[in-house]
Each structure stands twice: as C-alpha cells, then as structure tokens.
Amino acid sequence: MPPLPASFYAQWRVRCGVTPLLREDLDSPPERLLQAVWLHQRLRRDQLRTLDGQPLRVLHPGFHNLEGGPDFRDAVIQIGQDSPRSGDVEVDLRASGWRAHGHDRNPAFKKVILHVLWESERPADEAPPALLLRQALDAPLGELSLWLGSEAAQSWPENLRGECCAPLRELSASQLQDLLRQAAQVRLQSKAAQFQARARQAGWGQSLWEGLFRALGFKHNVWPMQCLAELRPRWSGDQTEALPLQARLLGISGLLPVDLTRAQAGTDGYLRRVWDQWWRERDEFSDCILPRELWRFHGLRPANHPQRRLALASRWSLEADLPAKLEKWCSRDLPDKELARSLLEILQVGPDEFWSWHCTFRSARFKKAQPLIGGTRVTDLAVNVILPWLWIRAVEGKNQAVQLAIERRYFAWPPAEDNSLLKLARQRLLGGPGPRVLSGAAAQQGLIQIVRDFCEHSNAVCQDCKFPELVREFNHLAT
Ligand code: SF4
C-alpha cells in the first residue's frame, strides 16, 4: 500500500501501542494477533489447506471466547469432501502447545475441530487437524498488524462515564470535530486496506461483491454472506433472469424451506416455482450448500432477514456492470444533499413479485409493497463498503483528484441510524449528548474507531487506557 498521510490521531495510535507493528522477520507474532487474524479471517480463504494437505473451507470462524477453554467457540468448517462440522478452534503459536498447555487432557478442549498454528512442526498424534497461518495470510505481516490493531474486537462494558470524558469536554467543538475526523480517516483507510488485500487475491470486482454481501449480513450473518460471495464466480455466471438466480442463491444458502405454509397460497405458489428451479440444479451445487445452522436469526429484525437480503443480492448480481456504475457515480459532480439519494438510485432494484411484499417465506404479506433497500442501508453500504473501495482504487491508480473527491463525500455523508454502540460511546466518551452532536456518518465512524482502538483494549474502569492522554496532548498542541 502506498504511504498514506498520517494525522496526529494516526501517529498517536501507533506510538501508544494500539497498533503493535510487526515486521516480516519477526519469528512469532503475539498470540493475540493470531487470534485477530483468525477472527477477521485475514487469510487467502480460497486456498486454505490443513497441515496434511486437505482443502479447508471456513464457513464461520466462531465466536471469540474470552473466558477459559478454546479461543473460538462454535466455528463451522469443512475439510476435504467431509460435511461441514461445528466445533471449537484453538489458536497456538506452535503445534507443541497442544500438549504443553495441557489441551490434550482438558475436557474443555474436547470439541476442538481445528488447531490454528503459526509454526510448522509435527503435531501430536491425537491433536485435531491443523492449519498453518504463516503461509495463508492475505497481506504482509506489518500491514496486517496495523489493520488488526484497529479492529481486534473484545467485549466491552456498559454504563460508565470514561476517563476520557473530562479531557474531551475541554476541547472546543471544532477541536472535537477535528479529532473525530482524524479517527474516521483511519477507519476509512483500514477498511480500504482490507479491500486492497482481497483484490490482490481475487480482483477488484470480487472484493467489492464480497464487501456488499458482508454488509447485507449485518452483524448476525456476515460469515455466511461472505461464504456465498466467495462462491459468486460459480453461481452467477450464466444466469440472466431474476427467479432462477434467486432460487440458486437461496438453494445454496440452505435457507429454502422444505415445507409449504399451507396457509398462504401466494407464498406457496412462489415457493413451488423456486423449488422447480432449484431441483434441477441442486446436484450441481451440492458440494457447496451452506448448513442452515450457519445462519443466526435471534434478535434479527424481520426486515433484515437473510432470505430477503439474498433476494436483493441476487437482483444486484444480475447487473454485472454494478462496479462500473459505482465508478461512474464517483466521477459525477453532486451536491452533498444528493449523495445518498443518487447512490440509492444505483442500488435500488425494481419491484419483486414476492420480496417486495414479504420479509421472509413465513411472514404475512405487507399491506403496501416495500422497496428492497432503503436509505439507512445505503449509508451503511457507502461508509463501510463503497467509499472505501472506490478510495483505495483511486489511491492505487494514483488519481489524487478522485481520492480527494471520495474523501469529501465520506466526510459530507449524512449520519447513519443511531445504534446501541454509538449510544454507549456517546455516554462514556462524550458524557451523554444526543445523537446530533455527531453531525455526519464520518463523525460516527470516528467515534466507533476510538471505541475499537481504546475502549475494547481496556475495561469498565478504563484501566491503562491511553486515550485521555492523547486528548490532553491533542488539546495542548492545538492551543
Ligand atoms: S476506555 Fe479509554 S476511550 Fe474508552 S471510555 Fe475509557 S478512557 Fe475513554
């Protein structure tokens, strides 16, 4: 990645150790970083093999376990021709860690199905299949350590005003905006670096599709959506009509109901036609159908159900020129107030005979047809996917005018919908002002970046957090 301008915030987070810089010649990165590599799957996911040479598919990396026991719970993987399996994943520097740490005698490790390692050496006979991370990273170690420093996620506490609240209140409104802006720029670059790394492996178009699919998974279903996007070259090729492509994508997702509702004739009619299509192709795709257990539905708003999101994704996939349309959009001269509307125009799809009227196969029919995508989702897609992707393309193409134009859009974008993470961050860091203190989506992104960089590495009493010191130094330099 070409050198990027380093703001005060960017330099500070490196200086204070938020981003532990690694070098290529470093023998053993800290285990925490290996866990972050696994959690965020910063791997060449389509080329993974176990230590004994079997192809490995990671359908879900599992949930980071911060208590005793294996590092990740409930991962889903597929090795060779076997069916997908659920179980735990343990991350160690070396294979010898399996015995040295007593995992072989600890019943808590009985469900480990994969041992993720940095070093190559002979594993213990009874140890689970192993994956070597060292050759599988999707970017050089130094680049990854910078990226991972900003994203490594841990659980974080609630209901406490942070130690940084007082120094932040001493900043003027414009100083606070400037600090959030610098943090937001770090976030934009961090997301862009992920697209860049993936594009090196799979091409720019595919890296964009994967970002769009991940964003449609919300936080619940990012991984199954990522898996479907990775299979896109296989399922999208020859199909030019909406219903057959919907059927194929729903079939591969494992979300197609087997039974009719027997209560809604319209739904049953649609479901029959989808199955008519899917029957014919099921054998062809049988090796990549996702297990239904991969999907999470608990706490999901009906409008965000993956069945409806897949209907939208299948409609987008009919438009092979979507990446080109987005590039054209970024070269248009648009007033700030037109940004979200103009992007929605590109991402909106026409009416769908079933999904314009339903959230899921089982839900009641809406009284009025609803669009498959609304303004809220467009903002999430813009700041998390489309603008970072366009920005890094401009950086790689050394097109500074476009790069600056995209940054201008990023910083002018209207705010996203408020959420629990932002509410808590406003309370802890800013002392509880209303959502309007964050005037745009970038300010929200900046606040989230500070939470990722600092709150998530500290605890409820802000132990050892260096952010208050950063704020004081920032204030001192500005006055
Ligand atoms: S952990 Fe750090 S950044 Fe988070 S609220 Fe406490 S002092 Fe502020």
The biggest sheet, with number of strands, parallel, antiparallel or mixed sense and barrel status, is: 6 strands, mixed
Distinct ligand kinds: iron/sulfur cluster
Low-confidence stretches: 151-159
- Terminal residue distance: 34 Å
Overall geometric form: globular
Descriptive account of the structure:
The structure is a single chain. 47% of the residues lie in helices and 7% in strands. It contains 19 helices and 6 strands. Helix 10 (242-253) crosses helix 12. The longest helix is centred in the middle third of the chain and has 30 residues, at 173-202. The protein is globular. The model is unreliable at 151-159 (pLDDT under 50). Iron/sulfur cluster binds next to helix 17 and helix 19.
Q: What would the keywords be for this entry?
A:
about 475 residues, alpha/beta, 6-stranded mixed beta sheet, 19 helices, about 45% helix, globular, binds iron/sulfur cluster
Give the topology, please:
Blueprint: H1 8-15, H2 31-40, E1 56-60, E2 63-64, E3 72-79, E4 85-92, H3 97-100, E5 112-117, E6 130-132, H4 141-151, H5 165-169, H6 173-202, H7 204-216, H8 222-230, H9 232-235, H10 242-253, H11 265-281, H12 306-317, H13 322-331, H14 339-347, H15 375-396, H16 400-412, H17 420-430, H18 441-453, H19 467-478
Parallel strand pairs: 4-5, 5-6
Antiparallel strand pairs: 1-3, 2-3, 3-4
Helix pairs in contact: 2-4, 6-7, 6-15, 6-18, 7-8, 7-15, 10-11, 10-12, 13-14, 14-15, 15-16, 17-18
The site of iron/sulfur cluster (SF4) has 13 residues, from helix 17 and helix 19.
